[in-house]
Each structure stands twice: as structure tokens, then as C-alpha cells.
Amino acid sequence: MDRYAVFGNPIEHSKSPLIHTLFAKQTQQVIEYGRQQPDANGFNDAINTFFTEGFIGANVTSPFKLDAFRFANELTPRAKAAEAVNTLYKRQDGSILGDNTDGAGLVQDLQRLWGELNGKRLLLIGAGGATRGVILPLLTAKVQNIHIANRTASKAQQLADRFKKEGAITASGFNDIPEIQFDLIVNCTSSSLDGGLPEITPSIFTNASYAYDMTYKAQATSFMVWAEECNPDIRTADGLGMLVGQAAESFYVWRNVRPKIEPIIEIVREML
Ligand code: ATR
């Protein structure tokens, strides 16, 4: 039986084993999928042992995505762009491929919810690893342009500089966001996790059609509630679909089969 696991610390609350078990059932595959919690400095030893023992793939979450990036023998372009790896795959020749499926997970979920992304004007809030991981997949999905706004403007500017060869991308702090119409606003900060909000002008929502929060909760996140207060016509969603979407893309990398994410999102939502 093909064996996989998710690596993180802490890991006990990870939904990946549940999601991959549901994918396997849906696509009539037989797999085993567990959890591994190395010590903060123990990722390399743990992952070496893991592959030596015959496991063939791993998901990697906080705080080990950079360790996984360094561990891989070869990287996909989207993993290089993200500077982080959330999916490792042992190939037939024994080499380890490092991939990053987070951006594909977001793109898949946005398309499922609100249709194609081509031509859309995007505002991304935040400039950390979560933002870096999704820029190339969003540009590849042919969005018209991306503006990154971050509390610390210099970090947004660094990201924009890094990706400007790949497409139309600009950056600013929170106080000087250009007064243009954004179609879709994505909160890439973790501010909603503790009920907080980015200190940003509510006028960004006035003419926007969609607001997406990368975090998720059983109820609407603080960012979703705020977006709807600012614009009652806006459509909102949380990041549960991105979580299931990145898992589906990993499953596809490993098994060349694409699970349907919608029924799995519904099941996982019921359990939040
Ligand atoms: P990660 O790699 O997980 O994305 P990170 O690199 O620490 O984490 O980045 C977190 C991002 O969320 C940053 O853009 C951060 O803004 P700063 O660069 O100014 O620190 C942003 N962030 C976190 N909490 C925030 C809050 N309450 N309001 C606004 N931005 C916030």
C-alpha cells in the first residue's frame, strides 16, 4: 500500500489525514496517510527515515516548509517561486521532488466559487509566505493585475520586484493603496485567526465583487464580516476550500488522479 504523511509541529489538529482519506475513498484508491511531528530541529532526520522506510509522499506544514524546500533534490517552478515546499514526492529513481500546491489550491477554489480569473484585478493583503506562495499561480491563471498591500510597505515592494517579470504587479503600504477598482480582494494575513482586521481603508470593498480570507473558522471570519458590512453586495468565502484544494493538487502530484474538492469541503465544513 502507498503510504503518505503530513509533517508539522504541532500536527495533531491537521485535517490532511482526513482529507486525503476522503480523496482516496472518492477516487477508489487505496492509501495510508498519517501524521508526523518532528522536533523543531528534527525535520531532516525524520524525513530521511520516512523515505527510507518506504513512504512515498509527504505534505509539509508549519514550521517545516523551508526545511522541505532545502531537502528536495529538485523543485517545481511554483515551489521555487514560493521559496517553500508543502509537497514532497519520492520518484521511481529515488530522487525527491519538492512542489508547492498552495497557490494551485487557491486558484482552484476561486475558480470553483466565482469563475475564471482571467482579466480580474486583484488586491492581496499581506506580504508574508502565504502571499509569496500564490503570486505565480495567480499570474499563470491570467489575472489582469495584482496589487500587494502590506502593513510594512517594503516587504510588499520586495515581492512585487521579485515577480514583476512574470506579470503586472504593484505594491504599497496600507495608507497608499491606489484608488482603482479591485474585483477580488484576498486577505493573506492571519489577522482573522484572533478576530483582528488589517488596518486598511474600507473603500477597497466599495466596488469589489469578491472577498476571500485565506484563514477559516466554523463561522464567517472577521474579514468576511467586515467586507460584507462595507459592501452588502460583495460575495465572501473563507480558506477551507484552499486547504482542500492544495491537498487535491498534492494528491494529483502523487497519484495522477484529481479528486473533486466540493463534496470534501462540505464534509470537512460539517466537522469544524
Ligand atoms: P507567513 O509566512 O505565515 O505568511 P509572515 O511572514 O510572518 O507569515 O507574514 C505574515 C503577514 O501578515 C505579513 O505580511 C504581516 O504584515 P507585516 O509584514 O507588516 O508584519 C501580516 N500581518 C499579520 N498580522 C497582521 C495584522 N493584524 N494586520 C495586518 N497585517 C498583518
End-to-end distance: 30 Å
Let me know the average pLDDT. Answer: 98
Poorly predicted spans: none
- The percentage helix is 25-40%
Distinct helical segment count: 10
What is the succession of H and E elements? Answer: EHEHEHEHEEHEHEHEEEHEHH
Ligands in the structure? 2'-monophosphoadenosine-5'-diphosphate
Overview of this protein structure:
This protein is of the alpha/beta class. The chain contains 10 helices and 12 strands. The strands form 2 sheets. A 6-stranded mixed β-sheet has the order 2-1-3-5-6-4, with helices on both faces. Strands 9-8-7-10-11-12 form a 6-stranded parallel β-sheet, sandwiched between helices. Helix 6 links the parallel strand 7 and strand 8 (145-149). The longest helix has 16 residues, at 240-255. It is globular. It binds 2'-monophosphoadenosine-5'-diphosphate. 2'-monophosphoadenosine-5'-diphosphate (ATR) binds next to helix 6.
